[in-house]
């Protein structure tokens, strides 16, 4: 019996048994878990900085099926015009056909073309010390600029800058964004949001903070034409100037404000349920409207709109995380509309070499493409042959 017991003891030698963590490490792990759980509880209990409004966004149009939004590669062969401006938000041309565009650092560039239409080296035309977005030449050759930091500006041919308006009705113009100029010199422009900056929290909140404004060069006064817009963005007059369009980026629609006729002073929807966030609007010689789509629809944003609790939670996150979550999809997209609001066609770069598109401007047989921070860099163009 004693020998048997000895053999039994020996047979268990060398067997691996699970090792228990030292008590100090266990306590540390439990403490860390408790801190995390407590942090989550506090995060959930802290009031949200916004009170979101529920919105059931319409189902996004398919980019794969037949129809005007059908996927293609019309923008994939884009040619670089200049990379001097990194984020050329808007594009316009002077009477000599020179291209003008601004950059987010305040500089406005001029790009001449040779006799064959080839772009030459970009030159700095002016520096607003702000962020110039919309640009358009008036009848006197002055470049009228909407600068999101400075307001409505006029820059004469020598580059001198004058502030036309930075207030309306005694209140600030918070974020002057885009513009168009009527034949009588009246300037129609958007005041994007009284947030005064682009922030994901405004998307999550889903409340209208934007306005459409008019500047009268005779009285030198600005007036509010339309308010309660969901991120007022691009602006364009119709060929007959009987209405002006303004893009409501956060509701995927173009709104029409009537300037003449029986509907004067009223507004309606020109086109809705776009396949992305509309940015700037330009009008070509045929009276058609071109719209840059900064990003295709973001499914999580539409889902968030249907759930105010989730939107409120999202708004608590650091702005750096929110901005990353709402970065533009790497899919270039621009849309063409008839004067009546019918979607004629769409232009894509599904490969994402060209993306974050803000402007599509038709000029001399080319479609010129501008972008904003977060998108691809530089001014590009593609032939308008379809």
Automatic annotation (TrEMBL):
The chain crosses the membrane at residues 28-46. Residues 1-14 have a biased composition (Polar residues). Residues 1-20 are annotated as: Disordered. Keywords: Glycoprotein, Membrane, Phosphoprotein, Transmembrane, Transmembrane helix. Residues 177-261 form the Strictosidine synthase conserved region domain. It holds the Pfam family SSL_N. Belongs to the strictosidine synthase family. This is Strictosidine synthase conserved region domain-containing protein.
């Amino acid at each position: 019996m004693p020998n048997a017991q000895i053999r039994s003891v020996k047979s268990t030698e060398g067997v691996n048994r699970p090792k228990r963590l030292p008590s100090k490490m266990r306590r540390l792990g439990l403490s860390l878990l408790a801190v995390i759980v407590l942090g989550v509880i506090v995060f959930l209990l802290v009031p949200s900085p916004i009170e979101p409004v529920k919105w059931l966004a319409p189902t996004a149009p398919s980019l794969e099926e037949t129809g005007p939004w059908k996927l293609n590669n019309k923008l994939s062969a884009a040619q670089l015009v200049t990379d001097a401006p990194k984020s050329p938000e808007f594009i316009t041309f002077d009477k000599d056909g020179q291209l003008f565009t601004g950059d987010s650092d305040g500089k406005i560039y001029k790009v001449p073309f040779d006799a064959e239409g080839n772009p030459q080296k970009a030159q700095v035309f002016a520096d607003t010390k702000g962020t110039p977005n919309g640009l358009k030449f008036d009848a006197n050759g002055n470049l009228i600029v909407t600068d999101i930091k400075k307001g409505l500006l006029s820059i004469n041919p020598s580059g001198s800058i004058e502030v036309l308006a930075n207030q309306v009705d005694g209140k600030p113009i918070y974020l002057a964004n885009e513009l168009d100029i009527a034949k009588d010199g009246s300037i129609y422009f958007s005041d994007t949001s009284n947030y005064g900056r682009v922030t994901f929290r405004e998307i999550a909140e889903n409340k209208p903070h934007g306005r459409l404004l008019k500047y009268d060069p005779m009285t030198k006064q600005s007036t509010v034409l339309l308010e309660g817009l969901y991120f007022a963005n691009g602006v364009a007059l119709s060929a007959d100037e009987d209405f002006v369009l303004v893009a409501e980026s956060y509701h995927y629609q173009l709104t029409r404000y009537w300037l003449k006729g029986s509907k004067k002073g009223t507004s309606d929807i020109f086109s809705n349920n776009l396949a992305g966030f509309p940015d700037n609007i330009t009008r070509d010689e045929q009276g058609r409207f071109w719209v840059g789509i900064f990003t295709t629809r973001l499914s999580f944003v539409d889902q968030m709109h249907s759930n105010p609790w989730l939107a409120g939670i999202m708004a608590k996150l650091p702005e750096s995380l929110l901005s990353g979550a709402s970065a533009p999809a790497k899919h270039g997209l621009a849309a063409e509309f008839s004067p009546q609001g019918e979607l004629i066609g769409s232009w894509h770069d599904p490969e994402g070499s060209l993306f974050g598109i803000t402007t599509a401007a038709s000029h001399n047989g080319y479609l010129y493409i501008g972008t904003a921070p977060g998108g691809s860099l530089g001014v590009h163009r593609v032939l308008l042959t379809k």
